[in-house]
Amino acid sequence: MPIDLLTSLIPNEKQKLWELYLSFLYAETKRFGFDKTQAKVKEDKLRLLEKALRRDVSGKNNIIAKLQSEFIKENLSLSLLTDWLVVWRYTAILEPPLNEKRISDIIGAAASPLARMIMALNNENPSIYLPFSSLISAILFLYILRENKPILKGCKWKLSQQRSKLKGWLKNAGVLLNVVSSLKLKFKVALLLNRLNIYGQAFQNNKQCEIGILDEIKIFLYSIWQFVTVRHKSVIIRGL
Fold it and tell me: In whole angstroms, what is the distance from residue 204 CA to residue 119 CA?
């Protein structure tokens, strides 16, 4: 279950920017993956990357220059790029095994800019940041489990704790159906949440998850029911 699932939440007219953003993230995340022999070199490269992100970069084929240009057009904060430096500092010097807190910190650091980016591209109220962040944290967690990422190597995180954490993220993310403003986004979120719940149930039961045609039909129909029946509530009243 790749992070590309989030692409379904992006408006069509913003897809080009989103794809450019993901390309940058994938390339740099791969570059700053853990390698004990290269830790010092990667720290130096991170400093150079930070300098590049914080100044105007030129060049038609330079991905940072393209992103900076698009960010200016969309009035997006540079922090949606620079906040990833925190994640890559973690992974560049990563030395497994990690405990629950360290892994949760890394997931949270990665979920934050992704959540804010999606909210900004959908012109959503910043007040709904917390449930959006929980949604993305659940996706990232399921992703690193499925791909067996190095972050989990020998991790000191009991299976019961992992299940509890995932359940909490999915429960918090469910609030999104009540608080997103856009009806189109609400339906997209419903589809994604119902898909994630199937993945989550499979993980809870220690089973492999394959979503078939019947599952897709159930997801679609249940999402329609939620779209019709789940009422919008003020984020102020909800205290979010």
Answer: 29
